[in-house]
Amino acid sequence: MPATGSLSGKIALVTGSSRNLGRAVALALAAEGADVATHGFTDRAGAEATAQAIRAMGVRAAAVGADIGDPAQVRAMVTEVERDLGPVDILVSCPGYRPKDDPLAITPEEWRRVLATNLDGPWFCAQAVLGGMVERGWGRIINVAGTGAWLGEERAPHVAASKSGLVGLTRALAHDYAHAGVLVNLVSPGLLHTEESPYRIPGRDYEAFAAKMPTGRVTTPEDVAGAVTFLCSPAQRAITGQTLHVNSGTYFG
């Protein structure tokens, strides 16, 4: 039986949803009744696994693959989503390319690859769906950054620069499209309880690590997904151009 909820009848595209945060966001939107297109570039199988989990919830899903740093691939991806599910009402960009290196060793190619994925990608995706949102008079775009956008990121100036750029992109689009019923916001997680979290290193004491957080716990992808779902709700009509920090109190923005 199809799920019902605040997002029933809406179509969502969640980039980077093969695992971790993107997967949690895709599942949370589906739980609210949205049909969801999942995305993976290097992990298409993971995107399909997320889509299968969504179908099991009683809503439609489609798995797509594209290099979001390539505008032609993004346009083809959105066309595929529209063919399989319908016009995109909700876009959540979860780019997560975060390499670390000695800043002096970062090549121009690596710099461009990080910005292409983390900053160009959300812009190309937004550009591909905004026209339809404006036509229909409703849309939600959520970008995902991180505390590195405000605090910098050790051994990752390209990552910090790309995430800081998302803040400006979010605010600019919010200015341009609020009048058309399209709200654009940014969610900024802190360290997340994911497969790559530092405390997963063998020998790392998770309890001691979590105790350092003001809340006494590490933020989970589901915590962040709840914030995204709130910002996507049709009942939420007045928040745009804002950053919602979800980090267990480790940074007060």
Could you name the key traits of this structure?
single chain, 253 residues, alpha/beta, 14% strand, globular
Task: Write structural notes for this entry.
α2 (44-55) links the parallel β2 and β3 (61-64). It is globular, with a radius of gyration of 17 Å. By secondary structure, it is of the alpha/beta class. It has a seven-stranded parallel sheet, with helices on both faces. It has eight helices and seven strands. The chain has helices spanning 20-31, 44-55, 71-84, 108-136, 148-151, 157-177, 206-211, 221-232; strands at residues 11-15, 35-39, 61-64, 90-93, 139-144, 182-189, 243-246.
Averaging pLDDT over every residue, what do you get? 93
Assembly status = single chain
Which value, in Å, is the CA radius of gyration? 17 Å
Contiguous uncertain segments of 5+ residues: none
Helix and strand pattern? EHEHEHEHEHHEHHE
Cα(first) to Cα(last) distance is: 42 Å
Structural class: alpha/beta
Characterize the largest beta sheet: strand count, sense, and whether it forms a barrel.
Answer: 7 strands, parallel
Q: What is the general shape? A: globular
The strand line-up of the biggest sheet is: 3-2-1-4-5-6-7
Q: Care to count the β-strands?
A: 7
Helix percent reads 40-55%
Count of DSSP helices? Answer: 8
Strand content: 5-15%
